[in-house]
């Protein structure tokens, strides 16, 4: 099989069905763009989980003056109550569960609040005297949060025990929903791409039925006859996949690594390197999708 003849047949088919080929490229581009976005979003979620789950703590909030919690009937937590709570956190009963403990007073809580919301509408909205004191507890196993909550559920001076992991779980749940939505749209678009590729290959085979008939009469094999058609779909899908990788790279470079990273410097975000890891997978998905779709279409509809 001469490579030059094969490529001339492929180029001839591309020229004859240029509008349909462009449609295949665009549909493949859009569908794989959603696939790549979903993959990158999952990579970001995984990175954020690894980073934040190692840093989050259980917060044992002490009673403020105006709390209505049953354990705060005496008003603001006293120094004696604070000492008892701290002693309990360092006791042998919790030694197997508590890794570290530090006290966060109002001044520290206010400073951290200002740093976290600097440049936003929330900056300066809460005065220092209204900040709530707490003990920040690092656990040996974050899954053992329930033990700390149960232990201090009826302790005088403790208003509430909050597991920051649960707050993060809500955020990650929303991100996972967004990923699922992207995957759903991608599946719909991939189905459209498969149908369009199959239609394009059928039309291309129909317009060249005379040439394929002659090739069959002179002894050409089915593989030799059908391969140019398959390559047409594969090339179109590959171009769409590369375009989707390029657009994702630009979006991540300028939108994520550039604009967003400057506004959330404390969080490690995905970069162009992650896009370079995803792009070959997109090309592989596009090529396999087009190749299988084209081969099945020719096997069913092309009688030579």
TrEMBL record:
Keywords: Cell cycle, Cell division, Cell membrane, Membrane, Transmembrane, Transmembrane helix
Location of the protein in the cell: Cell membrane
Chief location of this protein within or outside the cell: membrane
Membrane-topology annotation of the record: Multi-pass membrane protein
Domain ABC3 transporter permease C-terminal: from-to ranges: 185-303
FtsX extracellular domain mapped to chain residues: 56-161
Annotated transmembrane regions: 20-41, 174-201, 238-256, 276-298
Gene3D superfamilies (alphabetical): 3.30.70.3040
Entry annotated with the keyword Signal: no
Subunit structure: Forms a membrane-associated complex with FtsE.
Family under the similarity heading: Belongs to the ABC-4 integral membrane protein family. FtsX subfamily.
UniProt function note: Part of the ABC transporter FtsEX involved in cellular division.
Family annotation (NCBIfam families): FtsX_actino
Protein name according to UniProt: Cell division protein FtsX
Organism: Brevibacterium salitolerans
Name of the gene: ftsX
């Amino acid at each position: 099989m001469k490579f030059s003849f094969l490529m001339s047949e492929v180029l001839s088919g591309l020229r004859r069905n240029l509008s349909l080929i462009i449609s295949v490229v665009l549909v493949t581009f859009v569908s794989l763009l959603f696939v790549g976005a979903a993959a990158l979003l999952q990579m970001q979620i995984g990175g954020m989980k690894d980073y934040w789950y190692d840093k989050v703590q259980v917060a044992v909030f002490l009673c403020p003056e105006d709390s209505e919690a049953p354990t705060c009937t005496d008003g603001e937590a006293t120094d004696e109550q604070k000492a008892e709570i701290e002693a309990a956190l360092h006791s042998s009963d919790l030694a197997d569960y508590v890794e570290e403990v530090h006290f966060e007073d109002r001044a520290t809580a206010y400073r951290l609040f200002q740093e976290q919301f600097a440049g936003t509408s929330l900056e300066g909205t809460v005065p220092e005297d209204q900040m709530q004191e707490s003990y920040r507890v690092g656990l040996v196993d974050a899954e053992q949060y329930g033990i700390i909550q149960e232990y201090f559920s009826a302790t005088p001076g403790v208003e509430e025990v909050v597991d920051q992991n649960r707050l993060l779980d809500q955020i990650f749940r929303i991100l996972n929903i967004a990923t699922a939505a992207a995957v759903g749209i991608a599946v719909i678009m991939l189905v459209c791409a498969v149908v369009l590729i199959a239609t394009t290959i059928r039309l291309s085979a129909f317009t060249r039925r005379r040439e394929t008939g002659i090739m069959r009469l002179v002894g050409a094999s089915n593989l030799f006859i059908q391969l140019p058609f398959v390559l047409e779909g594969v090339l179109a899908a590959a171009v769409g996949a590369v375009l989707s990788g390029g657009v994702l790279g630009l979006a991540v470079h300028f939108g994520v690594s550039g604009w967003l990273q400057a506004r959330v410097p404390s969080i490690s975000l995905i970069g162009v390197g992650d896009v370079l890891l995803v792009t070959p997978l997109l090309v592989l998905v596009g090529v396999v999708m087009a190749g299988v779709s084209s081969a099945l279409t020719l096997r069913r509809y092309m009688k030579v």
